[in-house]
Write a structure and sequence with these properties.
This protein has 165 residues and is mostly helical. It has helices at 2-9, 13-19, 69-76, 81-113, 128-131, 154-158, and strands at residues 33-36, 51-54, 135-136, 141-142. The protein has 3 domains: 2-36 and 46-77, no CATH class; 79-115; 119-165, no CATH class. It has 6 helices and 4 strands; from the N terminus they run H-H-E-E-H-H-H-E-E-H. The mean pLDDT is 72. This is Pc24g03060 protein.
Length: 165
């Protein structure tokens, strides 16, 4: 009965919104809005924007919906733009901190896995003369008779006895 009465009276958008028949924001094309402008305007009348007045849609195009408790709960969860922006900033900062921490932990795990427990002196053969070369010359500088890398590979072992400048 209320539905038929509203269709006959063609209620405006504010009345339909207060009944809960329309959502909080009305998304309709501009054709549904009419502009109310004064018929005559003098030069001293301040220029102002025309007021929007919503025309009721045809009854078949928009069914009337009564308020329910689910709609009230949905409206209560709406938040302001500031709170939403703050929440997004903290979310992005949290993701950045967690990602950075995960990268640091992964680096330390990788670094710890590269070390061996049982390192012995037999792993790297180095000549004693390469570590402590003899000194000579006018400035008493070290003379490289034997190099540290002489025992690294077969090619270096073949060049070990080669004279160096």
């Amino acid at each position: 009965m209320l539905n038929a009465m509203l269709r006959r009276t063609r209620a405006d958008g504010v009345a339909l919104k207060s009944m809960g028949s329309l959502p909080g924001r009305i998304h309709t094309p501009k054709a549904f809005f009419t502009f109310r402008q004064p018929l005559s305007r003098s030069l001293h009348t301040p220029c102002r924007r025309p007021a929007l007045q919503w025309r009721a849609l045809e009854p078949v195009s928009m069914p009337i919906r009564f308020k329910s408790e689910t709609a009230a709960k949905a409206e209560s969860w709406k938040q302001s733009r500031t709170i939403t922006a703050i929440r997004k900033v903290f979310t992005f900062c949290g993701f950045f901190i967690i990602t950075t921490g995960a990268v640091v932990v992964a680096f330390f795990i990788y670094d710890a896995s590269t070390y061996r427990k049982g390192v012995s002196a037999m792993d790297i053969p180095v000549s004693e003369l390469a570590l402590n070369p003899r000194l000579g010359g006018p400035k008493n500088l070290p003379i490289a008779d034997v190099l540290v890398g002489d025992h690294d590979s077969e090619a270096m072992l073949l060049q070990k006895d080669k004279p160096r400048l």
